[in-house]
Design a protein that fits this description.
Helix content is 26%, strand content 19%. The protein is α+β, with helices and mostly antiparallel strands. The strands form 3 sheets. The chain has a 6-stranded antiparallel beta sheet, with helices on one face. The chain has a 4-stranded antiparallel beta sheet with strand order 3-6-4-5, covered by helices on one side. It has a two-stranded antiparallel sheet with strand order 1-2. The N and C termini lie far apart (64 Å). This is Teichuronopeptide biosynthesis TupA-like protein. It comes from Roseicyclus mahoneyensis.
C-alpha cells in the first residue's frame, strides 16, 4: 500500500470530518489519534502491515469488513482507559453489579510487578498458569515443585528463559508495529492463577463476539497448547461451517451454561460497540477470562470471507463514517466500571496421601 494512497485517505478523513476525527472524546476514554505521537505515521505502518497480511488494501473511508473496521478502531475508536478492558486483572470491572453473581474468577495466588517466577515453596504442589496481565500469548503453564535435578536443568534452560521472558513481558512495548496503544496504559504485572484444565489438556475457551451489545457469533477453542481446534457457532449454538483463525473440527456439545455466558457477555457489551468476552467452564461454574477489543491486532486474516463480512455487518461503530457531532450519547455515557472482583486468594490446600 503506497504512502500516497494512505496520505490521500488521511486528507479525505480530515476534509470530510470522518470517523469523528474533530469530535471531543468523553472523559475516561481515549483514541489512538489523540495519544499516539505521530499517529499518521503509525497509521501508515498499520495499514501497510494489514495489506501485507491480508493481500489487499483496506478501505479507510467506508469499510464493510470486520477486520478493516478493527484497523480503523485502533486509531479512531473510543477505548476506556480507567481502567483498560484488556487488563486481565481488571476485566471484571466491566461486569455489571446485576450480573456478578453469575460468574466467578479463577483463583489467583501470587502476583508481582518484578520479572520473577514463584519459588517452589511459594505454593503447594500442582499445576498452575503463570501469566502477565496484558497482551496475548503472555501465559505459560507451570508445575510446582521441581526436584533438584529438574530445577537445575530448568533453571539453566527454562527457568532463566522464563525469567527473561517475564522481563520482556513487563518491559517491552506490546506489538508496537500494530499500534495497540492501550496496552501501554496498563500497569504491568505477572501472576499465578489456578489451572482450570484437566491433567492432559487446557480448558476449552469460549469467546463471544458482542457487536453493539448483542452476541453475533462465538468460538470455542480446544487444546490450544497442542492440537488447536477452533469451532464457530451462531448465537443459538448452531454450528457454523466456517473458520476464524485456526482449523475447525466437529462441533462441541452446548453446555447448560450457554445462556448464562451470553447474558453476561451482552451485559458487558452494553458499554462497548464491539467487545469479545472470554469464559471458561469448570464444575458447572462460569469463569470470566479476559476482554478483547482487537482480536489478533487486526493483522491475521479471518479465513472465512463470509464470517468477516457477517461480523462487519453486525458491528456498526458510532464513531465510523460521517455525521458524528457528539460522543456524549449512545453507550459511552453508560460506561461506569465497578471495583474489580479479582483478589489474591489463599493458596490451595496441600494434598496429602
Amino acid at each position: 500500500m503506497s504512502k500516497g494512497t494512505i496520505k490521500a485517505a488521511i486528507a479525505e478523513i480530515r476534509d470530510r470530518g470522518l470517523h469523528g476525527i474533530e469530535v471531543a472524546v468523553p472523559a475516561r476514554f481515549a483514541r489512538g489519534i489523540d495519544v499516539l505521537d505521530g499517529w499518521e505515521e503509525k497509521f501508515r505502518q498499520s495499514c501497510k502491515v494489514f495489506a501485507h497480511h491480508h493481500g489487499f488494501e483496506p478501505n479507510l473511508i467506508d469499510p464493510k469488513g470486520f477486520t478493516q473496521k478493527q484497523l480503523l478502531f485502533k486509531f479512531f475508536g473510543l477505548v476506556p482507559i480507567d481502567p483498560v478492558p484488556s487488563d486481565k486483572l481488571l476485566a471484571s470491572c466491566f461486569v455489571p453489579e446485576s450480573h456478578r453473581h453469575l460468574v466467578t474468577l479463577p483463583d489467583r495466588y501470587w502476583i508481582s510487578d518484578r520479572p520473577e517466577v514463584p519459588a517452589d515453596d511459594a505454593l503447594p504442589p500442582g499445576r498452575y498458569y503463570f501469566k502477565s496481565n496484558h497482551g496475548w500469548s503472555t501465559h505459560r503453564p507451570i508445575t510446582l515443585p521441581m526436584d533438584a535435578q529438574t530445577r537445575r536443568r530448568l533453571t539453566r534452560l527454562t527457568g532463566r528463559r522464563l525469567t527473561r521472558l517475564t522481563g520482556r513481558w513487563l518491559a517491552d512495548p506490546h506489538q508496537p508495529r500494530l499500534s495497540l496503544w492501550w496496552y501501554e496504559r496498563i500497569k504491568r504485572q505477572v501472576f499465578v492463577e489456578e489451572h482450570l484444565g484437566s491433567a492432559m489438556r487446557d480448558a476449552p475457551d469460549w469467546k463471544f463476539f458482542v457487536c453493539n451489545g448483542r452476541v453475533e457469533v462465538f468460538q470455542v477453542d480446544i487444546d490450544r497448547s497442542a492440537n488447536h481446534i477452533q469451532t464457530l457457532y451462531d448465537r443459538d449454538g448452531t454450528f457454523l461451517p466456517v473458520e476464524l483463525f485456526f482449523d475447525s473440527g466437529p462441533p462441541v456439545e452446548m453446555p447448560p451454561q450457554l445462556d448464562t455466558m451470553i447474558e453476561v457477555a451482552e451485559a458487558i457489551g452494553q458499554s462497548f460497540d464491539f467487545i469479545r468476552v472470554d469464559f471458561f467452564l469448570k464444575d458447572d461454574r462460569v469463569y470470566l477470562g479476559e476482554i478483547g477489543m482487537v482480536p489478533n491486532g487486526a493483522t491475521r486474516p479471518i479465513r472465512s470471507a463470509e464470517l468477516d463480512e457477517r461480523l462487519g455487518a453486525a458491528w456498526q461503530p458510532p464513531w465510523l463514517g460521517q455525521g458524528i457531532t457528539d460522543f456524549n450519547r449512545g453507550h459511552y455515557p453508560r460506561f461506569k466500571p465497578l471495583p474489580s472482583m479479582s483478589r489474591i486468594t489463599a493458596a490451595p490446600p496441600m494434598v496429602t496421601a
